[in-house]
Amino acid sequence: MGFRYRKSINLGGGFRINLSKSGVGYSWGTKGYRITKTAGGKTRRTYSIPGTGISYVSESGQNRNWQRNQNQRSTPNYQPAAPEPTYQSYQEPITEQRIESAEIENFQSAEFGNITSSIERTLKMNKWGTILLWCALLMAANPVLIVLPIIGGILKIIARTKGAVTLEYDFDAEKEEEHNRRVGAWIVLAEGDKEWQVLTETQNSNTKVNAGASRSLNRVPCLIGKTFPYYLKANVDIIQIKLKKETLLILPDKVFIIRGSKVGAVNYDDLQIQISSINFVESEPVPKDAQVIGQTWQYVNRNGTPDKRYKNNRQLPICLYGVVRLRSASGINVEMHISNIQKSRDFDMLIR
């Protein structure tokens, strides 16, 4: 390696990702200096004199074949009789199992370190801006403190206008088609009336007072969309999944896990997407696109008849919902329920 001459060399800021059949390559830097990690595993450093077309390139590392894991997805079972009824608990859980991802440190790999640390800086700047803005409440005690919310406002403006990390993707035709199909699959899933994240599950020891369900779930609404957060820009569409404690950003080559002002990342190929179905005894209003497959009672006998010992024994619908589980060896653990079973079936076909 050594000096070379090219007609033009673009060494602007930001991060670039090249996706091809041979693998994923990354590069980042500023004018005059850029680091590139090739799909083969080599590290290339480019030093240049801006405006002259002159650059010096050094390369290190050895080629290696990147073994990619195939996404493992379960074969969906949409037969109504197969899953056992599940519903949101009517009584205080005795024991419960949390369905949550690992600590963010599990996802902070060196491979994505430069990108994740850049996003974290923007998130922390925005966080401190918010804290300093709240200091406006102290101005009544000491007017001199007016400088703190002013600084806070400036920090938030910078974070939301200049702090976005830019990712520039370069695809070959096959990879571009694959990414567009994945994005389309998530958008189809988001077209349903309701999506929930399952937070905990509890095994019911007394199914008679739990509508016959063997387990109870604690769930909250979640949101699936194609919008960009303020701290990230890219030349491709992404999927943003807003959960209770974290946000997942699905990109062509990676998945970001955003929790507070901490950021982790895993390779997309390490993400396992499993699709199935569930019979759910619905105690809340039934979504307009849900498929109701039966009825039960809040307090029910073994033969399915209502237990007459209880007053105000409500009849409850049994809905057939889709289930999407996201898993990774590094610790992603997310379970979502989808009100529209047909949308989850379509998602299963498109996401493969």
Structure description:
Strand 2 and strand 3 form a beta hairpin. This protein is α+β, with helices and mostly antiparallel strands. It starts with a strand and ends with a helix. The strands form three sheets. The protein has an eight-stranded mixed sheet with strand order 1-6-5-4-3-2-9-13. The protein is globular. It has three domains: 58 residues, no CATH class; 206 residues, no CATH class; 43 residues. The longest helix is centred in the middle third of the chain and has 22 residues. Helix 1 packs antiparallel against helix 2 and helix 3 packs antiparallel against helix 4. The N terminus is likely disordered. The protein has four helices and 21 strands.
List the helices and strands and how they pair.
Blueprint: E1 3-5, E2 15-20, E3 23-30, E4 33-37, E5 43-49, E6 54-60, E7 86-88, E8 97-98, H1 113-134, H2 147-161, E9 165-171, H3 173-190, E10 195-203, E11 215-221, E12 223-225, E13 232-234, E14 239-242, E15 247-250, E16 254-259, E17 262-267, E18 272-281, E19 291-297, E20 315-327, E21 333-338, H4 341-351
Parallel strand pairs: 2-9, 7-11, 7-18, 9-13
Antiparallel strand pairs: 1-6, 2-3, 3-4, 4-5, 5-6, 8-10, 10-11, 10-21, 12-14, 14-15, 15-16, 16-17, 18-20, 19-20, 20-21
Helix pairs in contact: 1-2, 3-4
